[in-house]
Structure formats: structure tokens, C-alpha cells
Amino acid sequence: YLFTLCFLPDQSLSGFSSPNRSGHSVFFLELEAKMETAMEVYNDVEMSTPPIKRRKKKSKVWEHFTIGVTEPGCRRAFCKGCNQSFAYSSGTKVAGTSHLKRHIDKGTCPALLHHTHDNNDNDNSQPMMTTPKSDHTPRRRYRTQNTYVPFDQDKCRHEIAKMIIMHDYPLHMVEHPGFVSFVQALHPQFDNVSFNNVQGDCVATYLSEKQNVIKSLEGIPGRLCLTLDMWTSKLTLGYVFITGHFIDSDWKIQKKLLNVLMEPYPESEEALSLAVSNCVSEWGLEGKLFSVAFNHPASKTAVENIRSLLCVRNPGVLDGQLVIGNCVARTFSGLAKDVLDKGKDVIKKIRDSVKHVKTSESHEERFVELKEQLQVPSDKVLCLDDKTQWNTTYNMLVAASELKEVFSCLDTADPDFKQPPSAEDWMHVESLCTFLKPLYEAASTLQSSGNPSAVTFFHEVWKTQSDLSRAIAGEDPYVAGIAKTMKEKVDKYWRECSLVLAMAVVMDPRFKMKLVEFSFSKIFGEDAGKNIKTVDDGIHELFNEYMALPAPLKPASEADGLSDFDNYILETTGQNLKSELDQYLDETLLPRVQEFDVLDWWKQNKLKYPTLCKMARDILSIPVSAAAFDYVFDMEPREMDEYKTSLRPETVEALICAREWLLESDASSQQMSSAVVNAEA
């Protein structure tokens, strides 16, 4: 009331009695009367003023939200469906309704999502607040951890293509109803992609990654060695996997899958040479090749086609002599196959015995109990073999051989076990294992090391040939028969690959020509001198070819103005100076320490042997196996699956190459991250 009196006109207060009049009661009676007069005046003013109309809320979000006061001066919007609260106003600031629309539009409200799903099932009605699609629709945003992230259709398609490539999923999966439903549940705004769309996205990813590979190859300081791995298919089409091997500027062996080329006639004499020619042209490798190795059986004409191609495209590399027609993995698999074929009858008996134990839980329990009773010390576990992987057969034979005492007595504990292998059978098993063991250990080296040294396999092949020679001279006809068949293949491998392997040995400062002379005297006997001379002549001829190569120009900052003096020294004393190669060969051998790194040694001595160092880099990069390390124990060539053979050859190449490159990139990133973590620790 007092507040109202303050706003009354002065004339409305006339006649108001002073409080000095006697008696407070009279004063308050007069005050009450004047208050009534003031209220009448106030009401008259209010009635004469037009009422303020509040603007009606037009947004559809208010069909789903209500406003509530949470604290003085602060109001929040509450979802009717899930009761989640959102900022609406604080003081004079109003948050708007965009974030409320997102809650409805994106389907993040559980209650609304359930309601929409039911409506779709009943009357095919559309979700609320959908926005018509157009080419110029602005990117929608969704909220994650208080950060607004733009929805990017192109990025989502790129990630789907990358997922398909890395995990080898079929391209048609993007059209499968289950995948379409899954993606729509993740994000309703995503536009479904077709097989053709994702095929194009995968090829685009391949082309993008290919640029990175091209850049890495441009910086190679030396030459490139190629391996050709031929895959078959049920459609009689061949697929040639071409991999490049090289030593980088940090003296580390590297390899890159370059091509997967479909060959319609894989048995033709031009198939391999055509694949090499296409690879050289596509990647610009003219003058950069050093050697070619392959694992596909090839005729002499086919090998000569590759050799002549190597000469034409790469002059000055021993007239194409560095062509390896038998990779070591296929050679070892062929030797193992010969052993298994000779012992197929006894191997079947062992396989049936193992199958009896492993296919019945009660049989296996009896076997274990008997083993404990007999106190057999072996910790080997029985396992059935995979006939396509010869190492599994070897492991089965080794385990069974160590448990032969249990098998010999098993018929007494297990009446269902009728025909245990005989003592003679077990003797043959031991002989088979004796032949398979060195092959298994050598092939395992290919798996344990991504790029095994040619020096290592010089020792392995030499040792294998020496062991076979002794076995043939032995008294056991069963063993001698196996050894004779195996030695024929080892001799063939030596004839084709001894020069390459021996050159790698010469580039090892622990062995040089001394090991070649020693081993060849054991292998070739009276012909050793001729074969030793072949290696010595070859290494000198190759060195002379490297000496004839033009030297790279030195930057002006490195020139010392004494080039004429250098020429004078060469002219006056050149006849009396030893070459880098002869100087290297005449020096004392280094101690044979086990952890010796031959590549690091050449890295440290590149100033002492500038030309020989370049030759050593190329020789030591020659791969000994054309098979991928996962397939070194395969009994037969790899076969392309039916799905990929149904695709275009260009798509097959894009999927396989891009997968290899992406996995390598991820592995490299993980190594860098681990190095950073270790450095910080």
C-alpha cells in the first residue's frame, strides 16, 4: 500500500490528516480510507492499459518439451518422453530450441525412438522433425561429450571402404539388409551405398595409398629386387603377386607389394616375363632392377624370357644372371613332399592312431591315464595334421614318436584301439623326422624373420646337401632311397642359385671367399675349382660394372677444387693400387660373433668402400624366398578365393595391395607410438 501511495497524484492526497492529530487510531482510520482511494485509482489505470499478449510458441519441439523453473532466474526444458532436462533460459539469456530439435531429430530420446519404431511398424509414419534432403542441405551436427561434430557422409564412406579392405570383407556387404539396418541405427542421416559405390571408394583408397608407396620408392638409394608368387584359382586363372625388396637409406631391409596381376594363361612361357614387364613400366623401374626370383615352375624358355628382359631393362647386371628360378621356400616344401610321399603308408597309420585318441573324449582320457601310469616324460600334445601344411604333419609325427610307448600299450587299456603301429613303423617315423627336422628349422627361419639373409640359407642348403650325401652312402636302404630323391632337387637348386648365395656370403666380412672355397670343395669335389672361379669372376665383373657407373655430382659446397689432383693420382698410381674389392677380400676375416649385423657393418664402412658399399647393398637385398612368410609350409600353390575371382582384376589388385599397405602403415604407427612411450618412460 505504501508503495502504491508513492505513485498517486499529489491532489489525491489532499485532505489527508496529519499524524500529529491526537490518537493513533484516528490516523490509521484515515490511512485506510486513503488506501482504498489509491487502489481504485490504480485499478482504473490498469483497466485503461491494453493487456500484453505473450507470443504463442510455434516450434514443434514444444509438443515434446515443457518448461520448468529449477531455481530463481533459471528455467530448463524437460523432455516429455525421457524427462531429460536441457538449458532454456538463465536471467535474460535464452538458449533457443536448436539443441531441443536435435534431441528429437536424431532419435536419441529412448521414448521417442520406441514410439517412432512402433509407428513405423503400424502406419509407416516418418520420424518427427526430419529435414528434406537436397544437394545444398547444410551438414547436421550431433553432440558428443559437449563437442559438436559435423556429420560427414564422405568420411563415413571412406571409413567403410577402409574397413572392407583391412578386414577382407566382401564388397556386397554394404547391400546386405543387416548391414543397412545397423548403419541406419547408428546414424539415420547416412545415405546407403551400393556395391558400385563402395567398389569405387576402395579403388580410390588404393590410389591414394599408392602415392605414398611411389614416394617411398623414389628415395631408394640402391636397386630393387622382385619376387613373383603365382596363385591359382578354380577358374584356371593365375594371379601374380609382385613384391619389391630393397635396402633403405638407413640400411634396413624393406619390401613392398607392388602388383597383383591376373594372368589368363599362367602356364604360358610369357606369363611371368609379361608380369615383370608390366610392373617395370607401371612403377618406372627401368634401370633399377637387380634380380628376379619366382616360385612358379617355369620352362627354360620362360626363364630365358625373364633373363633377356632383365638385360634389356637393366644393362650392367651380369647379363641377367641374377634370375632365381626356385625360391627356397618352394624348394624346402618340395623336399618335404618327397619325404612324406615315401612314408605315406606309415604316416597314415600314425594319423589313424592319433585320430582314435583325439576324436573321442573317453579315448583321450584313457590315453592320458596310461601315459601317467607309464610315466612317459614327454610334454608333447597330440594333434591331427593339415595335409596342406607339411609342418603340421611333421609336428604330428614328432609328438606321436615321443609317445610311442603309450600307443604300444594302448590296446590293453582301450579295447577299441585295435591296430597299434609296429616297432618297424616307429623306426620309419624316426627316419622321416630326421629328414624333416632340418627342413622344418630352415623354413621356420623364413617365418621368424621377415627378410632372412641369403647367408643363412647358404649354410642351410650346404648342410642339407652334405647330410643327404652321407645318408645315401649309409646302409639303410629305406633312408638311402629318400635321400637320393631329395638330393636331386638340392643339386638342381645349387646349380641355379649357388652364384647368388655365394655372392651374398662374399659380402659378409666374417666369411668372404674363404667360406665359398671351403664349402664348394665339400660339395663339388673335383669340380670345386671351376665353381669357385665362377663366383670369383662374377663378383669382380659385377664390381667393374659398378665402377663404370657415373658418380653422383657433388654439391658445390662439398667440392674442394682438387678434382684435377684426383685425376692426376689415378693416372700416375692407378695401376699399382688395389681395387676396393681386392682390398676388402685381402683383409682379415672378422670374428664370427652370433649377433653380428652385416648391414650395419657396411653402413659404418661406406666411406672406406664407397663403390663396393653400393654393390653390397644390392646383393644383400636379394630375397631367398618368393612366398609370403605365412605360406612357407604350403604343399601346393595358394589359391585365390572364388569371391575375388568374380571381381574385376583391377578391383582385386586394389583390395589386396591397399590392405597390405594399410596394415604396414598401422604397424609403423604403432611402433612409433611405442618408441615415444618408451622414450618418455
Automatic annotation (TrEMBL):
Q: Where is this region: Disordered?
A: 114-140
The UniProt keywords, alphabetically, are:
DNA-binding, Metal-binding, Nucleus, Transcription, Transcription regulation, Zinc, Zinc-finger
What's the chief localization of this chain?
nucleus
**UniProt xrefs under InterPro entries:** hAT-like_transposase_RNase-H, HATC_C_dom, RNaseH-like_sf, Znf_BED, ZnF_BED_domain_contain, Znf_C2H2_sf
Highest taxon in the source lineage: Eukaryota
Location of the protein in the cell: Nucleus
Indicate the segments forming the BED-type domain, all copies. Answer: 56-124
* SUPFAM superfamilies attached to this UniProt entry: beta-beta-alpha zinc fingers (SSF57667), Ribonuclease H-like (SSF53098)
Please describe the quaternary structure of this protein.
Homodimer.
Recorded protein name is: BED-type domain-containing protein
